[in-house]
Design goal:
The chain is of the alpha+beta class. It is 50% helix and 21% strand. Helix 8 runs antiparallel to helix 9 and helix 10 runs parallel beside helix 11.
Length: 604
């Protein structure tokens, strides 16, 4: 068996792909990507704002807990302060005057701080005044062991000390401080030094008591705040309305600039939270300012720094996901654009090819019509020349044997060339008439095939070509124009005979492939064809013959198309070819098909 390298099937291919301009598609894709980027950025902004709001709510929760604990501590402190001792007395530094009182403990720590400075001789009137001002103390005084005042931050009016006496120069004593406390509602503590060499006295007026009472309440509240309430908290500082510190936790940041936070609005209560993103201790921090309320009154501002590391991590993950998806969408878009551009180029190239084919077909049609007219006109001169040559041969033969032999040869040449020209004219006229409407009638296929075998048997035998048949027992009838179909099949057989050089074989096979088609195959052992030759074999202007115009197969192709059939070709160079003609058993529209298939690496 012959190896089939190229299969060709006549078929009219219709490209139904939608032709969309690449620039419009590119603009639409760019718009889509831009919209996606904008939506992604808005989405990230919403996530970031939500995360910041979450931290702000956490700061509010910490502030609410701090306010509640501070309020409870302040209430306890007020209750403890209402229980005064019956008589005053002085205690060593290790034991403050009211050991169970937070306020007394805090003031005792201040007294110890003053005592340390006194020990190193680092005190004077100015230092005492500055210390009292910074700590919000009404009176800071140092007495020696004889009860004489060594340093004090202020001179007390005589009316404060001697309201019930006429002595104007009596020294400051504990008893007089007690009397002053009873008259002016001040509080104080007196701490003896360890070596008994003196006493440190710290006194608070009403404003100082309020400040220090609130301060110790806030400090105790900060100590009570559980770790669960302080997760992510970097620092927390509380200041009163005058800017004096009430307490802190964590690292203490630098003071705010007046333009960094709306202090007035926060203290007035018109703004309940202000925040900003800052860089602190090499960390991203949400710096918040929240009003601090005690007894329903705004008494200060809470400054809270919340770590943004967890929220930034979530935001980074969302950015990576968005970027990955955006890159994926862009790759898909670029790939789609490339496919559209590639298909558009192919489509445009096909359109150009079709336009050229139409132009060529119109030109060939015009030339065909012209050629048919010329061929028709040539027949009359050919007939006249043929009759004249016959008259010359019959009546004007030379007398001598030598000239007569040459004369007869020349007349034979003229007669043969006239016959060849007449055959060419007949082919042109037959091709021009092949597109006319066929007259289809049911007729047995085997009878047509047998006539072809009978017509070509003698010529094939003279060329040492054997013709074999197979499947002729099938008496299937087909709707056909018998004369034209016979002419088409005869052209296939003649083409097979012409492809064989020397001894060869032609096999004509008929079989029914399915209930709709009859298949007629003409196989030969000729020279075969390449893929390029197969693509052009049915073009009217293409021929490989030294003589003739190559209209035989083109005419056969037109006739098969007219019968609604199709042609398939498989061929191997130097081995042979198979022409399979598939004809419909039932009448179909006269539309042939064209299809080419590549095999063994060859493109057809």
């Amino acid at each position: 068996m012959k190896a089939k390298t190229t299969l060709w099937r006549s078929q009219i291919a219709y490209d139904k792909r939608l032709d969309l301009p690449p620039l419009a598609i590119g603009a639409a894709c760019a718009l889509f990507i831009s919209m996606f980027i904008i939506m992604g950025l808005l989405y990230l902004q919403r996530i970031e704002r939500s995360l910041v709001t979450l931290l702000e709510n956490q700061g509010r929760a910490i502030t609410e807990v701090l306010q509640r604990l501070s309020q409870e501590n302040l209430n306890l402190l007020v209750q403890a302060g209402q229980q005064q001792p019956e008589r005053p007395y002085s205690l060593p530094q290790e034991q403050p005057l009211y050991p169970k009182s937070w306020l007394t403990s805090a003031l005792a720590e201040l007294g110890q701080e003053v005592d340390k400075k006194w020990l190193v001789a680092n005190l004077n009137e100015e230092a005492i005044k500055k210390f009292a001002e910074d700590k919000g103390l009404w009176l800071v005084a140092l007495m020696d062991k004889h009860g004489k005042v060594v340093f004090q931050n202020r001179r007390l009016p005589a009316a404060y000390l001697f309201a019930e006496e006429n002595e104007s120069q009596s020294p400051l004593t504990i008893e007089r401080l007690l009397r002053l406390a009873q008259l002016k509602k001040i509080g104080y503590i007196a701490l003896q030094r360890k070596d008994g060499s003196g006493t440190v006295i710290i006194a608070l007026d009403r404003e100082g008591l309020l400040y220090w009472g609130l301060k110790v309440s806030v400090e105790k509240a900060i100590e009570k705040l559980g770790e669960g309430q302080r997760q992510g908290l970097i620092y927390m500082t509380i200041t009163n309305v005058q800017g004096m510190p009430l307490g802190y936790s964590g690292y203490v940041p630098e003071r705010w600039h007046v333009t960094e936070m709306p202090f007035i609005e926060l203290l007035q209560g018109s703004v309940n939270l202000a925040s900003r993103s800052v860089r602190y201790l090499n960390r991203n921090v949400i710096d918040m300012a929240i009003p601090f309320y005690i007894n329903g009154k705004n008494v200060g501002i809470v400054r809270i720094g919340m770590d943004k590391e967890s929220t930034d991590s979530i935001l980074r993950d969302n950015k990576r996901q968005l970027l990955s998806f955006l890159i994926f969408v862009m790759l898909i878009t670029i790939f789609s654009m490339w496919i559209l551009y590639h298909n558009h180029n192919r489509h445009m190239a096909r359109i150009v090819e079709i336009e050229r084919s139409l132009e060529k077909a119109e030109r060939l049609s015009s030339l065909g019509q012209l050629a048919a007219g010329v061929a028709h006109e040539i027949r009359n001169p050919l007939n006249a020349i043929s009759m004249a040559s016959q008259r010359l041969k019959r009546d004007f033969s030379p007398a001598t044997e030598e000239y007569n032999r040459e004369f007869q040869m020349l007349c034979g040449v003229i007669r043969d060339e006239i016959r060849r020209l007449n055959g060419i004219v007949e082919e042109f006229l037959s091709f021009s008439k092949s597109r006319r409407r066929l007259e289809l009638q049911n007729y047995p296929v085997t009878e047509v095939l047998q006539k072809i075998v009978n017509l070509t048997q003698e010529e094939a035998r003279s060329k040492e070509i054997s013709i074999k048949t197979r499947g002729f027992a099938n008496q299937q009838t087909l709707p056909m124009d018998m004369d034209k179909l016979q002419q088409a099949l005869l052209n296939f057989v003649k083409n097979a005979m012409e492809s064989i050089k020397g001894v060869g074989e032609i096999e004509i096979t008929m079989h029914q492939r399915d209930r709709d088609f009859i298949s007629i195959t003409v196989s030969d052992t000729g020279c075969g064809m390449t893929a390029a030759e197969i693509e052009r074999i049915f073009n009217p202007e293409y021929t490989t013959k030294e003589k003739g115009v190559g209209l035989g197969l083109a005419l056969a192709h037109e006739i098969i198309r007219g019968h609604g059939g199709e042609i398939r070709i498989s061929s191997t160079p130097n081995v042979g070819s198979d022409f399979e003609i598939r004809l419909p058993i039932k009448k179909r529209s006269a539309e042939g098909t064209v299809r080419s298939v590549a095999k063994n690496g060859e493109v057809s």
